[in-house]
Structure formats: structure tokens, C-alpha cells
Design a protein that fits this description.
This protein is mainly α. About 70% of the residues lie in helices and about 5% in strands. It is flat.
């Protein structure tokens, strides 16, 4: 009933906060005061180490619609803290009164609206003056709106630059995580002022000021902990205001192209990811031509530069010239075959499937000796071969990759392809020969357990694993082999568990004790299968006697019924 009334329950609060914060919140129920319930939110004050303001949004029928904000340090990091839980629990304890409180909140809001409408102009002005005298943030927002409304360019510039100035938020030389949302709100205010300036007939000035703001934000962004991306989103709003101003002002297209290229290639582009093609309509043919020229020159200066390549790629794609795009990609082919795949995708999208496959095949040839090949390229070629019924060619590709990069994943891919082509028996024999050669070379060299053991385990060929494991398998592989063999070869599995438990007698800690308990449970299963449970009981008694001083271990064994 309580959950239906408020949109969440105790389980939702525990899930949002975590068990520890939930339990700690129980000690703060008497510290909640000033509770106000509205249609979609609850506000309250919680007295803890300091006095904290809390706001909960009330969900519908799912926990994802419920969230909380608190002014405490932990809450400012984006966490649903114990203070939020305390307020939520207080609301649940008053759930029967929530409908009445909501009705009262609506009545208060309606009453305020009626009262405001009844005030004279002078009375409203006096009220606003009173509020801006007490609230500096409100005063700044209204000053900015006023300057934009009267198109006071100088005042708007001063206000915008003041809003994006990071220094008031950078107490220790940078804007920390907790301060980022407040700074982001000011940047969004600056974006609104720029939009108002442009719509007020001052588009050219808005363009210049937006570019100045974007440059300043780019300089500051590296010193901001923007883990949640709130500042980045606000900077995007400034960039959108710049685009809107350009649509109004129609600046010189070549000069705009130069500025955009500078943004994409410059060091300050981390703040905002501008897409020059958003400006295509403003740039027109002359601006786009100038941008293409600048992009080509930049590409010549730095052929391997990521930003240079991105800019040229965007322009060529926009022109729709597939051959030009292929030529661009072909100038810098990645050894992994990733670029060959991009060419294949472009050609296939253009309906040129044969050329696409030829490029993908070339990618496999060019990267045949590489230890790492883009897996997407291999999958692309195998998929196209399989669609065409070329199953033996799929096997050939998988075999070629397995020869270069011998791994369990490569073995599994070869097995799937060979089974589809009905030739797995021969392929498996050849693959295992290669893996045995690798295992012989790796013996004693400090390697992890060989792929040979993993492959045989994956095949379910346990008898073969027992024949190969001695001197080759690592601890993980021995454990897996023993676990898989408990029913069919309990004596062999028991010997493995006994070997594994010996080195665990020396170390301490909860994780070690849990491993000991699991091994003992597995040993007990083996003894049961062998009908030698008395031997296990004797072994366990001896182990407990030997390690009796480790009380935590004894507790763990007791908990597992050992």
C-alpha cells in the first residue's frame, strides 16, 4: 500500500543505496525535518555531521524512476546516500498521509499563483527586488536576460565570460567532481544568452562571442572532473548556440570553414566534438570547398593524424563519392586489416559486393603473418563465404588464423567451421599435432597451461587430457579436469584435490579458507563415489587438528558442514 502511494518501497531504497547505507540510514530517522511532499518530489532537511538538504523524485511503478539528491559530500558524488534513504523511509512511514500532503501542496501552489496574479505591477517589482537582493544567482540570471532582451552587447559579453569563468569553482586549481554541475548550469545560462543575442538581431556579435566562449571553454576543460559529462553537455549547448547564430548572421563562408577546421584539428577540441557538416547549409559550396582544401593540406602535413583523417573522411563521405572514400582509406592501410574492412563495408553499402569481398580477402592476405588481425574482418569474410555456400573456404580461413594465433577461441572457431563442412576429424588431428608441438616447447618455460589442455577439455575428451596433463597443465586446468572427472574417475580427481589443498595450509585469509572448504567438499564427493567416506572423515579430523589455531578457518568449515 505504501509503495503504491509514493512510488517506491523499502526494497527500492535498499537497492538504490546499498545495504550499508540503508542500515546506516536507520539511525537518522529522527534527524529528518521540514518534510514537504509534492506531486513528483519530496524535500527535507537531515541533521547529520552538518545540515543537509535532500530531494527525492517520486517514481511511478519502477525503481528506475526514483532518484535522490543530497547536499552531503557523498551525495554530491552522485550517490543515493543514507540521508536520501532516511527521507525515503520517513515518507514510507507517513504513506497514508501522502495523498493529503500532495493535495495540500497543490493547494499551496494554486494559492501562490492566485496571489501573484492579484499583485500590482509595483508590488511584483518590489517582490522581485527583494528576491534578487537575497539570491545572487537569481540576480545574475535576470541581469543576463535583461541585457540580452535590450541587446546590450557589452553587458551580454561581460556576463557570458563571467558565467564560463571556471575560477570561482576551482578552489584547488581545478573544478572537482562535486562542483561540475554548478559550473555546467552557468555554462548553459551562457548558451541561453547567446541564443537570445542572436535572435535579437545581433547574429554577427553572437557568432564572435560564441567562438570566444568555445575557445575559453576548451582551455578550461582539461582542468575539470567531468566524469558525468554535465559540463560537456553544457558546452554542446554553447556550440549549438554558435550554429544558430551562424544561421542568422550568415558569416563569410571561407572564414567560417577556417574556424571549423581549426576547432577539429586544434588542441582545444576535447571540450566539444564539433561536426563541420552540421554547418553545410551555412557554408555553401564556397565554404565546403575551402574546408576540403584545408583538410587536404592538413592531411599532407600529418598523414597519420587522427583528427586530420577524421575531417577528410567526413567530407568525402558527405560528397557520396565511394571511390574517393576507398582511395582515402587505401592511403593508410592498417596492418590488422581494420581499414580493409572499412573499405569493404563502404563498397558493400554501395551495392558493390564483389569488390567489397575482394578488399576483405586482400585484408586477410595482407595481414596473414600478423599476430593480431581485426576479428571483425575474419568474421566478415567467413560470413560472406558461408552465405555463398563456400564452407571449405571458411575452414581455410579459420585454419590460417589458427596457425598464426593459436588460442582456444581460434580452435573453437576452426572446430565450428570444420563441423559445418564435415571435415572436423582431419582438421582436429592436425590442430592437436600443432598444439602438442607448442606444449613441448613451452614445457618448463613458466608459461600458463598450454592451449592443448584447454582444447581437449573443451572437446570433452577427458581421457586424452589425463594423458597429456602431467607436467603440462596449470592449476586452473587441473582443477577443471578434476571437477569434470569426479564421477567417472573419482580416484584421479581425489589425488588432484589432495595436491591442491597442501599449499593452502600456509596462507591465511577468508578467500583461502573458502578455497579450502570447496576443495574439501569436492574430496568428500570423491570419497562417497569410491565408498571410502571413513577415510575422508579421518583426513578431515586430522586437518582440523593440524590447523585448529585458525579460528576463522574452523568457522568456515563449520558453516559448510565440515
Amino acid at each position: 500500500m505504501a509503495r503504491k502511494a509514493v512510488g517506491f518501497g523499502e526494497d527500492d531504497l535498499r537497492s538504490l543505496a546499498g545495504a550499508r547505507s540503508f542500515e546506516r540510514a536507520l539511525g537518522y530517522l529522527d534527524a529528518v525535518s521540514g518534510l514537504e511532499v509534492g506531486d513528483r518530489s519530496v524535500t527535507a532537511t537531515v541533521h547529520g555531521t552538518d545540515v543537509y538538504e535532500v530531494e527525492l523524485t517520486l517514481g511511478g511503478n519502477s525503481r528506475s524512476e526514483t532518484s535522490g539528491w543530497c547536499s552531503c559530500p557523498y551525495g554530491q558524488e552522485g550517490n543515493f546516500c543514507k540521508h536520501c534513504v532516511a527521507v525515503g523511509l520517513t515518507v514510507l512511514r507517513q504513506a497514508e498521509a501522502v495523498p493529503r500532503q500532495r493535495k495540500a501542496a497543490r493547494a499551496r501552489a494554486s494559492g501562490l499563483e492566485t496571489w501573484l496574479k492579484a499583485l500590482s505591477r509595483d508590488e511584483l517589482l518590489a517582490l522581485v527586488r527583494e528576491q534578487i537582493g537575497e539570491d545572487r544567482g537569481l540576480r545574475r540570471r535576470l541581469e543576463l536576460r535583461a541585457a540580452a532582451a535590450r541587446s546590450d552587447e557589452g553587458a551580454v559579453r561581460d556576463r557570458v565570460l563571467a558565467l564560463i569563468d571556471p575560477r570561482p569553482f576551482a578552489r584547488y586549481g581545478c573544478i572537482e567532481y562535486a562542483e561540475a554541475p554548478g559550473y555546467a548550469r552557468q555554462v548553459e545560462e551562457a548558451a541561453g544568452a547567446l541564443r537570445a543575442l542572436a535572435s535579437g538581431g545581433f547574429g554577427v556579435r553572437a557568432v564572435d562571442l560564441a567562438e570566444e566562449a568555445i575557445r575559453a571553454l576548451g582551455d578550461a576543460y582539461g582542468e575539470i572532473d567531468d566524469s558525468d559529462g554535465v559540463v560537456g553537455s553544457a558546452v554542446v549547448a554553447v556550440a549549438e548556440a554558435h550554429l544558430a547564430a551562424c544561421r542568422v548572421a550568415r558569416p563569410d563562408p571561407e572564414r567560417l570553414a577556417e574556424w571549423l577546421v581549426g576547432q577539429v584539428l586544434g588542441d582545444g577540441n576535447d571540450a566539444v566534438d564539433l561536426d563541420p557538416l552540421d554547418y553545410a547549409e551555412v557554408l555553401g559550396p564556397a565554404g565546403l570547398a575551402r574546408m576540403r582544401q584545408l583538410a587536404a593540406e592538413a592531411r599532407l602535413r600529418n598523414p597519420r593524424g587522427w583528427a586530420e583523417r577524421y575531417l577528410m573522411e567526413r567530407l568525402v563521405k558527405a560528397e557520396g563519392d565511394v571511390d574517393a572514400l576507398v582511395a582515402l582509406y587505401a592511403k593508410d592501410l592498417d596492418p590488422s586489416g581494420a581499414t580493409h574492412l572499412r573499405i569493404a563495408d563502404a563498397l558493400e553499402s554501395a551495392g558493390r559486393a564483389e569488390e567489397a569481398l575482394a578488399w576483405a580477402e586482400r585484408g586477410l592476405r595482407d595481414s596473414a603473418s600478423e599476430a593480431h588481425v581485426d576479428g571483425r574482418l575474419v568474421e566478415h569474410v567467413c560470413d560472406r563465404y558461408a552465405r555463398a555456400g563456400r564452407l571449405t573456404d571458411v575452414v581455410a580461413v579459420r585454419r590460417g588464423r589458427f596457425r598464426v594465433e593459436r588460442s582456444l577461441v581460434g580452435y573453437q572457431a576452426l572446430r565450428a567451421a570444420a563441423r559445418a563442412a564435415d571435415c572436423w576429424e582431419a582438421e582436429r588431428e592436425a590442430a592437436l599435432v600443432a598444439l602438442r608441438d607448442d606444449a613441448c616447447q613451452e614445457r618448463g618455460a613458466g608459461h600458463r597451461g598450454p592451449v592443448l589442455i584447454d582444447a581437449l577439455l573443451d572437446d570433452g575428451d577427458l581421457d586424452a587430457v589425463w594423458g597429456e596433463a602431467d607436467g603440462r597443465a596449470d592449476g586452473r586446468q587441473w582443477r577443471q579436469l578434476a571437477d569434470l572427472s569426479r564421477e567417472t574417475r573419482p580416484s584421479d580427481a581425489l589425488a588432484v584435490y589432495l595436491r591442491m589443498i597442501e599449499p593452502l595450509k600456509e596462507p591465511t585469509g577468508d578467500r583461502v579458507y573458502e578455497r579450502v572448504a570447496r576443495l574439501l567438499l569436492d574430496m568428500r564427493d570423491c570419497h562417497r563415489a569410491l565408498g571410502t567416506e571413513a577415510e575422508f572423515t579421518s583426513y578431515l579430523q586430522g586437518l582440523r587438528l593440524e590447523l585448529r589455531r585458525r579460528r576463522k578457518l574452523m568457522d568456515v568449515l563449520d558453516r559448510h558442514g565440515l
